[in-house]
Design brief:
Length: 224
C-alpha cells in the first residue's frame, strides 16, 4: 500500500487521461505496479530491521510474491476491469455488457449500435498473470550448475519488469506510472544480483571480494 498509493497520486497528477481510462471500481486509489516496485525497494531495509539473512529471505519470497501478483491479475480478468487493445487473435476475449470493460468501451466510443458484448481485445490481465507465474518458477543458475543464493528473487524481478514494460504497450492508453515502476525493478535488480551472485563465486559481496583478491594473487604468482 505504501507504494501503490503514491503511484496512483502520480498518475492522477501527470497522466489524468490514463486514470480516466481505468476502472473506478477495482483498486480505486491504488496501483499494483507501484506497490510491487516499492516492496522490492524496501526489502533490503526490512531484512536489516528484522535481522534476517537478505539473500535467503529474498529467495524465499520469490514464489509467494509472484504467486500473489498472479492471483491479483487473475482477479482483474474475472472482474473484467482491465483490457488490452483490440485484436482478432484466436485468444481475444469479448466481455458482456455488465462488465467494466464493456462500460469503458461504450464510454470512449469503441462501441456503436446495440452491441451486447465488447469488441475483442487482448486478455491483458491473463498476460500479466502468466508473466508473474513464470517469474515465480525459475531460479538463476551459476555456471557451476548451482543456484546462486540471493539472485533468484532479483532475477525474477528484472524478468517481470521487462515483461511488464512490453505488456503495458498493449493497453489502449499506456499507463506510464506502471512503466516507470517496471523500469525501477529493472534498474535495482542487477545491483542485487551482482551483490549476491558475484558471478557465482559466493553468496556475499565480502566473500566475493576476498576470493577475487586471492584469485588475483594466484594469477600474479603464476605469471611470475
Amino acid at each position: 500500500m505504501a507504494g501503490a498509493k503514491p503511484a496512483y497520486v502520480l498518475e492522477r497528477q501527470f497522466w489524468p487521461t490514463a486514470t480516466a481510462f481505468r476502472s473506478p471500481e477495482m483498486f480505486s486509489g491504488f496501483r499494483l505496479a507501484g506497490g510491487i516496485f516499492f516492496a522490492a525497494l524496501y526489502l533490503p531495509a526490512l531484512t536489516r530491521v528484522f535481522r534476517l539473512e537478505p539473500a535467503a529471505t529474498s529467495d524465499r519470497l520469490r514464489l509467494p510474491s509472484w504467486g500473489a501478483v498472479a492471483v491479483v491479475h487473475l482477479g482483474c480478468f474475472l472482474n473484467g476491469c482491465c483490457f488490452g487493445t483490440e485484436t482478432r487473435l484466436p485468444w481475444a476475449v469479448q466481455l458482456e455488457e455488465t462488465s467494466v470493460t464493456y462500460a469503458l468501451q461504450r464510454k470512449f466510443g469503441w462501441l456503436s449500435g446495440p452491441q451486447t458484448v465488447s469488441v475483442p481485445v487482448h486478455p491483458l490481465p491473463l498476460y500479466f498473470a502468466v508473466l508473474a507465474l513464470v517469474a515465480a518458477l525459475p531460479r538463476l543458475i551459476s555456471r557451476q550448475g548451482q543456484a546462486r543464493l540471493g539472485t533468484s528473487f532479483w532475477g525474477s524481478a528484472v524478468f517481470y519488469g521487462l515483461g511488464s514494460i512490453a505488456l503495458e504497450f498493449l493497453r489502449p492508453v499506456v499507463l506510464w506510472v506502471n512503466v516507470l515502476a517496471a523500469l525501477g525493478l529493472v534498474a535495482i535488480g542487477p545491483g542485487h544480483i551482482a551483490r549476491f551472485g558475484c558471478s557465482g563465486l559466493g553468496p556475499s559481496l565480502g566473500e566475493c571480494k576476498h576470493r577475487l583478491r586471492g584469485l588475483g594473487k594466484r594469477q600474479g604468482a603464476a605469471a611470475r
